[in-house]
Structure formats: C-alpha cells, structure tokens
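Researcher: Go.
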Amino acid sequence: MKMKIRKGDQVKVTRGDEKDKGKTGEVIRVLPKEERVVVQGVNLVKKHQKQTQSGSKTIPSGIREFEAPIHISNVELVKQGAEKASGKEKAAKTAKAAKTAAKKAPAKAAKTETKPAAKKRASGKPAADSGSDK
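Model: Structure:
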C-alpha cells in the first residue's frame, strides 16, 4: 500500500490512548510493510532493560523510554500553518467578502435610481408605456 505520510511530516493523532489523542508531532520513522509510523513525543512506552554485553560494548540496565509505532489509520496529516490560523483565516476571508459585497450593492442601487426611464415617469408619462418598450 502506498503511504502518503513521510518522514518529517507533521501529523495529528486522531485515535488511540486518551493521553495521546489530539497530540501533534513530527514523523521520525515510517514502517511501510507494517503500515505504521513513529511520531516524536507520542505513544511513549517504558521497557525494562537488562544489562547486556556484546563484544566490547556494555548496555547498562535500567528503564528505557521510547516512542512506539502507531498504525497509519490513527494519524492524519497536518498542513503547515493551518493548525493555528485556520479559523482566523476563514473568518477574515468571509468578513472581507461581505464588506466588498456590501460596497458593491449600494453602488448598483444608486445606478438604478438614476436611469432615464425613471425620469420619464416623473415627467408625466404613464408607467405602462415604459414597460412595453422593453
């Protein structure tokens, strides 16, 4: 399956544990065969680690905390900047559109009042004649 989310993308957790739901973070790693992603700071798990030795390296014992993978269906892609300003931008656009429509509407009304047909009616000609000319 083709994955639309890539490493470095900002994603928001939509489903899962209550403490992680709604959090946003950057994708650290993508696991396409398992259809999972690892998100920074989300789905933190603790693992008790025994002390091990391999060759000349010694891994100390203790409790390790790391991000576990999340299924890709439980996250959604977040567009850059849209997270904070989406509501404000939409409100500003609608207000601007309303202002421009309000400015145009009175201008059209003023033009209709100054038509020559309106002046003819005022001069004494019957309204029926001006309607039949159209």
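Model: The first helix runs from residue 82 to 113.
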